[in-house]
Amino acid sequence: MEYRKLGKTDLQVSSIGLGCVTFGREIDRDTSFQVMDHALERGITLFDTAEAYAAGASEAVVGEWLTERGTRDKIVLATKVAGTVTKERVISSAEESLSRLKTDCIDLFQLHSWDDETPLEQTLEGLNQLVMQGKVRYIGCSNFMAWQLAKALLLSEQQGIARMESIQPPYNLVQREIEDEVLPLCADQDIGVMSYSPLAAGFLTGKYRRGQEVPKGTRFDVIPGHRPIYFTDHGYEVLDRLDNAAAQCGRSLVQLALAWVLQQRDVTSVLIGARDISQVDQAFEASKAAIADELAQLS
Asked: What's the pLDDT score for residue 186?
């Protein structure tokens, strides 16, 4: 496991991070505890959750685990505020997250998405107040476009307040838009990149095929909004190339897709979701796989 500096902060995060979106939604408390125990045992120190995950249930489960296991000082704790992000809403959301997480400080507090309705200056003022009060150590964003992050950085510099230290975008073999502007901006401004959805919400596992019915109970069945992103000619072409590469090296599609993201040096940490401990282990197996030639074909 590698540990890397996040942006200009003093936070050292594991190159594989644990996304906690499944907690309280797809898996229960006991299974969530097993996943977190195993992740920490394997060296994962970045735990990322959000108020929007299962309407706060994910944060609550993480908070119970931190308290029962006494692990708060062993991890980098990240969460997010969603929706309308007025100054008042940012502050109240952080207070609610702190309560659910059973801690007095969040290491990384992120905007879950861009808010078209609220002036960014107001949002940044709320975030900076949280930093000044010691309730949040650093701030970041998720799902921002390059110009949105650049605007936030400029305003923070002009006002002399806390700046965005990280961005959390989707990044996988199908969704590679961040390569055009986001990654170059982050490299130039020393912004940490915590990517998510390395398996494209399960599309790159091979369970969804061109012209076939979506399997009942799968993520694309439960959340059909994913379909327009991946069920495209481009998506299926990527899947075909992944099939070919997997056949050549005798590896699974999952291993190849994970390995491709994990070897991207411009990414600080790759967030993985897990419904059981085996899905934590598969990321480590992928990180060690000697499949450089096959990965080069996918790039």
From this structure: 98
Does residue 142 carry a pLDDT above 80?
A: yes
pLDDT of residue 11: 98
130 pLDDT above the threshold of 90: yes
Contact criterion met (CB below 8 Å) for 201 and 226: yes
Indicate if the pLDDT at residue 293 is higher than 80. no
Reply yes or no on domain 3-200+264-290 having CATH 3.20.20.100. yes
For residues 205 and 211, give the distance between their C-alpha atoms in angstroms, rounded to a whole number: 16
Tokens of 282: 């598969």
Q: Where are the domains of the chain?
A: 3-200+264-290
Task: Tell me the residue type at 224.
Answer: P
Which amino acids are annotated catalytic? Answer: 53
> Of 111, 243, 257, nearest to 173 (Cα)?
257
Maximum distance among all Cα pairs of the chain, rounded to whole angstroms: 55
Q: How confident is residue 174, by pLDDT bands cut at 50, 70 and 90? A: very high
What whole-number distance in Å separates Cα of residue 100 and Cα of residue 56?
Answer: 8
Angstrom CA distances, 82 to 13, 61, 76, 109, 145, stand at 23, 19, 20, 11, 16
Token pair, residue 240, equals: 């075909």
The amino acid that residue 132 corresponds to is M
Q: DSSP string of 59-121?
A: HHHHHHHHHHHT-GGGSEEEEEE-S---HHHHHHHHHHHHHHHT-S-EEEEEESS--SSS-HH
From 244, 247, 242, 276, select the one nearest 258 (Cα to Cα).
242
